[in-house]
Amino acid sequence: MYIKMRNLAVFAACFLGLAAAASAQVSGLEGTVKNPDGSPVVGAIVHIDRLDIKGNYNVKSDKKGHYGHYGLPLGNYKLTLEVDGKTIDYLTVKSIRTRLGDPMNVPFQIQAAKPQQAAGEGGQQAQAAPPPEKDRSMSKEERAAMEKANKDREAQIAKNKALNDAFQAGKAAVEQKQFDSAIENFKKASELEGGNQPVIWANLADAYSAAAKEKPTESATLRQGAIDAYKKAIELKPDDPTLYNNYALVLGYQKQIPEAQAALEKAAQLDPPGAGRYYYNLGAVLVNTGQNDPAGVAFKKAIDADPNYADAQYQYGIFLTSQAKTDASGKVTAVPGTIDAFQKYLDLKPDGPFAESAKGMIGMLGGTVTTTFANPNAPKKGSTPAKKK
Length: 389
Hints:
Blueprint: H1 10-23, E1 26-34, E2 45-50, E3 56-60, E4 66-73, E5 76-83, E6 86-87, E7 93-97, E8 104-105, E9 108-109, H2 140-175, H3 179-193, H4 198-214, H5 219-236, H6 241-253, H7 257-270, H8 275-288, H9 292-305, H10 310-321, E10 325-326, E11 332-333, H11 338-348, H12 355-364
Parallel strand pairs: 1-8, 1-9
Antiparallel strand pairs: 1-4, 2-3, 2-5, 5-6, 5-7, 10-11
Helix pairs in contact: 1-6, 2-3, 2-4, 3-4, 4-5, 5-6, 6-7, 6-8, 7-8, 8-9, 9-10, 10-11, 11-12
């Protein structure tokens, strides 16, 4: 006898929840740089150095003194202002924790320089920096170099704004289920940014994966796009278990089972408490694509990682039921462990969505349903509870 395993609607919610965690880690910093008289400082360099992990970014102020860096990973940063090749120590911002949503505003107001006394015997006042009019004496080559630097600066500023615009447009398109537009905008953002931000690649991969579900005839090509994007995101952020999980699910759809299992092993290694969920998600994908035997292996691994994962127990029971034998008289003989899996589900979720089905399966297989709930984590009778320290 062969009993078809049911599709898992709950999988969609699990997957989307994990995808959201990977896609919501973008932030930004912006502000203005002003002279003591309130006029804008053009071409000031704001150095943005990440403090929690390695990461360095630079951005220049435009003709209005405005600077901005968008698409920054969430983290702690130190900001240092550089003007005319000199770092202004008293304008160093020691630590900023970026946040989700609108860019944080960090302005710089340069103070008037205090007169300094020379160390020599004459005690004459040190010569002040040359006024802006000094630029009139620049050579042709120096002026050309300055103009080129200004053009490069303006291009960088435009690039940062374009990056932010493309990224936000991609997110908006996903919310509206316009996945082709989302893919186009995330690809544009990755090109503008130089391909070094994992959050952009993760969002691109999610958009490809979502598009594959909407376009069955193009699903293989779209999922390959998701696989490639996840690989890039993992290359840039190899310590994120969610990326490995979502990568494995797409591999599962593509029937690349060994690669999917390897990715989940890595996810479980990085996040042991989440291992049961990762294997359960893979099992769900495999069931929904008709790969029942690999699905059974995945559900068993979910149980091994977390014996109290109720839904994994139920789905493993369904898999074992599909292995049951029927003799000539019509009697069904379950393989060992089948009834135990259904009973374990009832112990953990006596009122769960699969409770009635689990009871029916136990009855069909000749077992007896235990209706009294027993907490699997409770101390056994006769044992002495451990005293709190």
